């Protein structure tokens, strides 16, 4: 995933009053997200096991395969990075000393869908 992320272009995204540069790469086996405010860089890499666990915690009423969650996340994030965020999707972020949390609120199969990207500071070699 990391090598695929390198070929992705950076995109400018806005959450509230904050502007970031971000890139993301999704696969059936997980995802990796890189996000920066030009003074800090954060990332999250999650495999299918981590996605499955978090999806159960955040979306107790949804029972879909992990690949469906990953596909839905891709369908929410890719338009955002292309400058066309979905009208029914809300994004917010919260910075803390330990990292950055990107919260997503949407719908999946007519039910509320929530996701939190738990980003930690990126290692220097990744940047």
From TrEMBL:
Signal peptide: none annotated. PANTHER family: NON-HOMOLOGOUS END-JOINING FACTOR 1. It is found in: Nucleus. Residues 9-120 form the XLF-like N-terminal domain. It comes from Hypocryptadius cinnamomeus. Its main location: nucleus. Keywords: DNA damage, DNA repair, DNA-binding, Nucleus. Gene3D superfamilies: DNA double-strand break repair and VJ recombination XRCC4, N-terminal (2.170.210.10). GO terms for biological process: double-strand break repair via nonhomologous end joining. The keyword DNA damage applies. Belongs to the XRCC4-XLF family. XLF subfamily. It comes from the Eukaryota. GO terms for molecular function: DNA end binding. This is Non-homologous end-joining factor 1. One of its GO terms (cellular component) is DNA ligase IV complex.
């Amino acid at each position: 995933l990391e090598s695929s992320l390198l070929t992705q272009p950076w995109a400018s995204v806005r959450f509230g009053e904050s502007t970031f540069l971000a890139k993301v790469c999704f696969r059936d086996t997980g995802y990796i997200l890189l996000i920066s405010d030009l003074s800090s860089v954060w990332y999250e890499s999650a495999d299918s096991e981590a996605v499955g666990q978090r999806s159960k915690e955040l979306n107790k009423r949804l029972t879909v395969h992990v690949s469906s969650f990953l596909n839905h996340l891709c369908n929410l994030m890719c338009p955002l990075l292309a400058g066309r965020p979905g009208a029914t999707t809300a994004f917010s972020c919260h910075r803390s000393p330990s990292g950055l949390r990107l919260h997503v609120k949407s719908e999946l199969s007519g039910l509320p869908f929530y996701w939190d990207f738990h980003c930690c500071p990126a290692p220097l070699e990744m940047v």
